[in-house]
Amino acid sequence: MQNNLRITEIFFSLQGESRSSGLPTVFIRLTGCPLRCQYCDTAYAFNGGELWSIDAIIADVARLGGRHVCVTGGEPLAQPNCMQLLSRLCDEGYEVSLETSGALDVSPVDQRVSRVVDLKTPDSGEVGRNLYSNIGCLTRHDQIKFVLCSRNDYDWAVSKLIEYRLDERVGDVLFSPSYGQLAPDELADWIIQDRLPVRFQLQLHKILWNDARGR
């Protein structure tokens, strides 16, 4: 088990979120997550999966092609060997990002990886799981994401933006409307009215393929 990870799927698609949105990307989806966000679109990754060696994962990424690799979940950091995988991918020369809930410590993650940390809002149902000590170790190479379900979520996110001066700490602060819960034009209008130093984004993969697995 020392060099193994439980994998739900590995596939090639377009990045749907983050500063790399729209770029062809290899996704490595790890199995398991300690959170249960009410809007989760990858509940199929909570259980099951298959054990892969890190060497086999690296070989499959090479087979699929592409320069960008995103390690996601579930919650990838719930598996300790994820750290080794991230470093191996960087050693192989890939541009690597990690999508994490922000509930687990991101400080041991290889500094070459762009950490996309999702701060959970009140309407996610998991706001109490945020590990705010993570913010102190983030750099301009990293990103913070808020998935917003309501005006209440927006106001909460703005308060965290100001409290932690997030736009000065990370490369991008991302505000995204939860698909089917908050109208994109409403969120866009709020950001413009408040002149926020954030990046508005849509969940591109949901617009293109809804919740199709492996897309």
Care to describe what's here?
The chain has helices at residues 54-64, 82-91, 151-163, 166-169, 184-194, 204-209; strands at residues 4-14, 24-30, 50-53, 68-72, 95-100, 114-118, 143-148, 172-177, 199-200. By secondary structure, the chain is α/β, with parallel strands linked by helices. The protein has a nine-stranded mixed β-sheet with strand order 3-1-2-4-5-6-7-8-9. The chain is globular. The model has no long low-confidence stretch (mean pLDDT 94).
Topology:
Elements (H helix, E strand, L loop, with lengths): L3 E11 L9 E7 L19 E4 H11 L3 E5 L9 H10 L3 E6 L13 E5 L24 E6 L2 H13 L2 H4 L2 E6 L6 H11 L4 E2 L3 H6 L6
Parallel strand pairs: 2-4, 4-5, 5-6, 6-7, 7-8, 8-9
Antiparallel strand pairs: 1-2, 1-3
Descriptors:
6 helices, 9 strands, 215 residues, single chain, nine-stranded mixed β-sheet, alpha/beta
Q: How many helices does DSSP assign?
A: 6
- What helical percentage do the residues reach? 25-40%
The structural class is: alpha/beta
Q: How would you state the average pLDDT, rounded?
A: 94
What Rg, in angstroms, do the CA atoms define? 16 Å
Low-confidence stretches: none
- Beta-strand fraction estimate: 15-25%
Main sheet attributes: strand count, strand direction, barrel closure? 9 strands, mixed
Order of helices and strands: EEEHEHEEEHHEHEH
Q: What's the N-to-C terminus distance?
A: 29 Å
Overall 3D shape: globular
* Widest sheet: strand ordering: 3-1-2-4-5-6-7-8-9
Instruction: Give the number of DSSP strands.
Output: 9
